[in-house]
Write a structure and sequence with these properties.
The protein is mostly helical. The chain has one domain. 71% of the residues lie in helices and 0% in strands. It is built from 4 helices and no strands. The mean pLDDT is 95. It binds protoporphyrin IX containing FE (HEM). The site of protoporphyrin IX containing FE has 28 residues, from helix 1, helix 2 and helix 3.
Length: 158
């Protein structure tokens, strides 16, 4: 029997909702870096705050994901594997693919954020943020279990 504890349900809902904040902040920060780079503007305090907030939201998602990983019946080692209509089982997707790709994406965002913070010129700050955040965003977009994903399917909202 699959038991769904309140803790598990809560983490799953928070992880599902926070994905939209991760995506919105990353899209916005990437677009901001692109327009900042093109216009040759100076890297303002507001730009810096958005860099920081975006990285922090992705860190919160990482923590929620790691907590889920510990208790999820889908990830559970040695658990039963239900065959599905997707390319890989949910078990393999969440235990390996989703977790590894998302962890790499968060590391990339973290490195980009730190490098941008320390970059010498304002143009470099925008450029570094644009490249690292865009790569992180692309990986995240590929590793989300969208309802239309060939790998695993989950609802848009919980
Ligand atoms: C950073 C970007 C991430 C995004 C956007 C993201 C997004 C999602 C989404 C949309 C789901 C489906 C939720 C649902 O069923 O409604 C999910 C499930 C899950 N995620 Fe993430 N995730 C991220 C990172 C991570 C990380 C880093 C880990 C692990 C370390 C992780 C572990 C999990 C697990 C274990 C599940 C499945 C839980 C279950 O169904 O029992 N996620 N994630």
């Amino acid at each position: 029997m699959v038991t769904h504890t309140p803790m598990y349900q809560t983490l799953l809902i928070l992880h599902s909702i926070n994905r939209w904040l991760v995506l919105a902040s990353l899209f916005y920060a990437t677009w901001m870096a692109w327009t900042g780079l093109r216009s040759g503007k100076s890297f303002s305090g507001r730009n810096n705050a958005i860099r920081h907030i975006t990285a922090t939201i992705s860190h919160i998602q990482l923590l929620l994901g790691l907590s889920l990983y510990m208790i999820s019946p889908v990830v559970k080692f040695g658990g039963a594997e239900a065959p599905g209509a997707t390319l890989v089982s949910e078990h393999v997707f969440f235990q390996l693919i989703h977790t590894a790709l998302m962890a790499v994406a968060v590391v990339i965002i973290t490195i980009g954020s730190a490098k941008a913070k320390r970059a010498a010129s304002d143009g470099q700050k925008f450029r570094i943020m644009l490249i690292w955040f865009a790569i992180g965003l692309l990986i995240i977009l590929a590793a989300i279990p969208w309802p239309f994903s060939p790998l695993a399917n989950r609802p848009y909202f919980r």
